[in-house]
């Protein structure tokens, strides 16, 4: 078996809550919010893993952990099987450059006072490109790669449209020479027609540069278009994962089914926000057993007491649902998401 480009093993991020006075007096244990809880995933070179879930499901926290912007409470993030924490300095530097980010809001992620050429050049300088000539040539190349003429390097972000600014963010990410980009809601702030253009750009760059993506979004239409595999998060845990084709054709988990069923009514944008009936429980005190049981139309007694494990089912999918325990998987299901 080949080593995946990116792998998360048992990744968790638990945020401690400040103790209330009553907790101090009663000496009750401090509560934690399990933003990401025991997540396993893999991303192969040149492929796209989509991460979807309602607001508060832990998508952005997972993204920050994969980018190593936050330390996990437990678990590991491996790149090519190595952790930057244990690699030597030069290798760790390379591993960090291998994974770059594109965020939702190009309005705030770009410095309004810097020309777009300087914004991209900055990344090349940090990467050790000492020759100014070389940097200028590379900036021109990167601008062309994202669909701009080289002469636009003198423009400021304010002179560009939202889609244009997002192209600059992508060029900045590419300047580090990554093999994987974590894109957190990269098209959510854009009009639908501009979204399509930016998604086309992501797809073209993937083909040309063999880039891998972790695409975080609440919009199922985006994932249906771009993802090879999908991870569905609910209250910080993976409830379903597998090949995108199989998941969109026949979602196994009632939560994924609810997300998909609600989607057509939402028109062009298959948004997951407010798509599922019932309130999202308080993430700081999630329900016992299956955390989805309070909203599940198929709830059984066992769901209220026992947490279901991710179980392989047909089509290479895995779902954490008691309905599927004991189901017959494919003869050779994949071992990890
Ligand atoms: N620094 C933090 N301290 C405490 N709690 C946090 C912190 N960051 C996130 N959380 C909590 O963790 C949970 C997951 O948040 P996260 O932003 O990862 O979800 P999300 O799925 O990305 O949501 P959205 O789509 O709204 O961005 C939420 O309940 C959030 O309030």
From TrEMBL:
Extract the InterPro entries matched here.
AAA+_ATPase, ABC_transp_ATP-bind, ABC_transporter-like_ATP-bd, Oligopep_ABC_C, P-loop_NTPase
What's one GO MF term for it?
ATP hydrolysis activity
* Protein name stated in the entry: Peptide/nickel transport system ATP-binding protein
Into which family does the record put it? Belongs to the ABC transporter superfamily.
Give the GO biological process terms: peptide transport; transmembrane transport
Q: Fetch the Gene3D superfamilies from UniProt.
A: P-loop containing nucleotide triphosphate hydrolases
SMART domains xref list:
AAA (SM00382)
- Has keyword Transport? yes
User: Per the database record, which ranges form the ABC transporter domain?
Assistant: 6-260
Lineage, top-rank taxon, reads Bacteria
Q: Which Pfam families match?
A: ABC_tran, oligo_HPY
Q: Please name the source species.
A: Phycicoccus duodecadis
Record keywords = ATP-binding, Nucleotide-binding, Transport
Q: Does the entry feature the keyword Acyltransferase, yes or no?
A: no
Annotated TM spans: none
């Amino acid at each position: 078996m080949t080593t995946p480009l990116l792998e998360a093993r048992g990744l968790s991020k638990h945020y401690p809550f400040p103790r209330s006075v009553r907790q101090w007096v009663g000496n009750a244990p401090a509560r934690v919010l399990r933003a990401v809880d025991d997540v396993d995933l893999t991303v192969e070179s040149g492929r796209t893993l989509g991460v979807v879930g309602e607001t508060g499901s832990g998508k952005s926290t997972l993204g920050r952990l994969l980018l190593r912007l936050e330390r996990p409470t437990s678990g590991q993030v491996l790149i090519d099987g190595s952790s930057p924490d244990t690699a030597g300095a030069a290798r760790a530097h390379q591993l960090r450059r291998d994974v770059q980010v594109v965020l939702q809001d190009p309005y705030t992620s770009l410095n309004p006072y810097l020309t777009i050429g300087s914004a991209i050049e900055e990344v090349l300088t940090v990467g050790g490109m000492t020759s100014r000539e070389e940097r200028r040539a590379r900036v021109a190349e990167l601008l062309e790669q994202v669909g701009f003429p080289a002469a636009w390097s003198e423009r400021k972000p304010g002179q560009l449209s939202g889609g244009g600014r997002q192209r600059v963010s992508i060029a900045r990410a590419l300047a580090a020479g990554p093999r994987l980009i974590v894109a957190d809601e990269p098209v959510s702030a854009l009009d639908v027609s501009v979204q399509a253009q930016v998604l086309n750009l992501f797809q073209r760059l993937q083909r040309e540069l063999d880039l891998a993506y972790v695409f975080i979004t609440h919009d199922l239409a985006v994932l249906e278009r771009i993802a090879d595999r999908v991870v569905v998060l609910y209250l910080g845990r993976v409830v379903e994962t597998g090949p995108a084709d199989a998941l969109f054709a026949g979602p196994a988990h009632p939560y994924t089914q609810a997300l998909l069923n609600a989607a057509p009514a939402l028109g062009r944008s298959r948004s997951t926000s407010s798509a599922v009936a019932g309130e999202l429980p308080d993430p700081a005190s999630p329900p016992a057993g299956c955390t989805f049981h309070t909203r599940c139309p198929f709830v059984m007694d066992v769901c209220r007491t026992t947490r279901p494990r991710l179980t392989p089912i047909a089509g290479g999918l895995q779902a954490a649902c008691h309905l599927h325990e004991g189901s017959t998987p494919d003869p050779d299901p994949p071992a990890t998401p």
